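re: ur question from earlier - yeah i can do the single chain one, its not a big deal. heres the input i used so u can compare w yours
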Amino acid sequence: MMGKLHVVRVISLWLWCQMCLDIGFCIKDYKINIIVIAPWNDVYSFSQRRIMPALCVAKDKMESSPFEFNIEPLDSKFPDEISMWRDARHFIYNKSANVILGPVHKYALELLARVSSQKDIVIMSPGGFGVNLGVNKTTDPKFKSLIRVGTTMQKLINFTQILLDRYNYKLYKFISEKHDSDMYFCLEFDRAVQYLMNVEKSRRNNTIMFDRYLYPRKATAEHILKHEVGSNFSVVVLCASADSVREIMIKAHELNFDNGEYVFFNIDLFSSKNESKKPWFREDDTEERNKKARKAYEALMTVTLRKPTSPEYKNFSNEVKRRAKHYYENFTYGEEEVNSFVGAFHDAVILYALALNETLEANQSITNGTEITRRMWNRTFPGITGNVSIDDNGDRNADYSLLDMDPDTGEFEVVANYFGNTKTYEQVPGKQIRWAGNYEHAPPDTPKCGFDNSKCPPKEPFPDYGYVIIILCTLLLIVLIAAGFIYRHVKLEAELAEMNWRVRWEDIILGTFEGERKMKKQAASNLSLARTEDTSVEGTLLIERAHPATNNLNCTWCKCGQCDVTERNRRVCCRHIEKLEERLEDVLQSDRCITSTKDFQDVVLNPQVLLTVYIHVMLARKQRGNAPYQLTPYKCRLMATRQFLCWLHSGETLERQTKWAIPACVIRAIKLMFPDIGAEVTSGDDACSLTLEDILPTENHSSV
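and the output i got, formated as tokens:
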């Protein structure tokens, strides 16, 4: 075994001597042995062929220093690093190593850090993310010589909490994959959440609430989303492999977790720039699943280490890839830029060289690991990845970026940066988070309705009988409205027909008893509610054709000589009415009857006047239809009777229920002027008198 180790050592030294000849290496005053522990397997992003060219670039920068840096690689055989421990122990116990770079994996690093601290040898690693490696080195010196130049769980959880606080989230779910990779990064993340978040919860007096779930290989995405997230949490922090996250998000789309009420944060620190640009896309997957993934990733944001964008870092990346291609046959990076591990190893050499120079200037021994380590604490210097800040416990204040997907291009882009040195969160100018579901702001930390609307159950369905009631009520309302219109129409027509001046049968019936009975039979059909042109009024006049005036010499009640003294007529003469007497003062004694006056003939017996009055009544009653050109005889007799009463009582205050007598001579004159057979009307107690209500329409009486 030792023989093989010697051969490997000789080959490595020869290789690095050849590399150093390119940079003009010369003999220095102090020889510094750097042991680099990393796997030769290029599957890992921190393999020897990836980081060695970066260490060579760092060594070139130390050319003017008085130190001769001898870099010796050691295969960590990751993930099985137990055998590596036997080889590394040789360097530690013989003190042939001044500084150890690596390993990355927590368990191997923890073992080496304990031994290195005991032997006072500086050990630096971009790994070792666990919480237990971050103990206070002042009070607990078991890892006193350890410097972590990469991210740590303490810093990552701290940034995650700052991010959640920014959107006032108090309730969240951490979901971690137990077997995400050989590094078990997410397993360490889950442990860190359990410890650090409980500390933070106690510090805040339990004002925040969280839950965590470490899922095994057998757990399905549907189980995780339905039973671990469900409708209780809106904020989910994922830590899993890229493929696992994609499967979870596709299922989230299928279950409606991307409805805008949920937000997912994905912890993905080590993916390359190209890998993190479209993490939802897979060339070997179907177009349908890629579309689902793209839609679901609108609800996801990525937390990653901030990738340098300076020209210096780009030049450094190109130089590292050039040297790797030159010194390692059949090896290429295949990345746009080198990953964060490569930059961290480079900056570790620079940091160690700075502390080494200061130790030498302070007349301290360059083998004093404790002194050199203390000079690296609480220090900031310009590294290839930007300003490298180490806190007072020997851990790097890492910088992080928040990535969000542009829904138009489907590419993730940086929307905010967090700088660990200044502990400031800065939004990228012109960029903002695009929340899923077209939300203009961050959703609350508790779902409003949930992915299945279980918190917003639909209202109970409207009962069938309710629809029946609504239909019946609607039909009833239609019937009532129709009945109202019909009633209004019928009433309007009836009122127009009766014109509110009905004349009773006995009021104006003339003729013999036999004639009356004959006329009743002829007009019986007009007593129905049907309205014809000749029966537009409910009460109709029956005025029989007049006979010559019978001998009225024996009539004691007729004074004008024009009254019809048949038995059926009532004994009222125009000379019995005082107002008519006043109108007869200027009439000759022989013609002293109101029917012989010019006024009576013009007002009562003029057909054109009666037609005009009839049209006036139509207008007053708002009757629809065309006005007649002439009136039927029966309507003329009706209007003539009305005209006589209005003419007789003009100038008086009229009451609706007052009855007025109609002289027999007036009735005789009207029937002689308009000889036709009409229809009879209902009889009353007093056939020779009418009320104002019988003959007037519903209008102001003073205007009649």
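The first strand starts at residue 30 and ends at 38. not sure if urs matches, ping me
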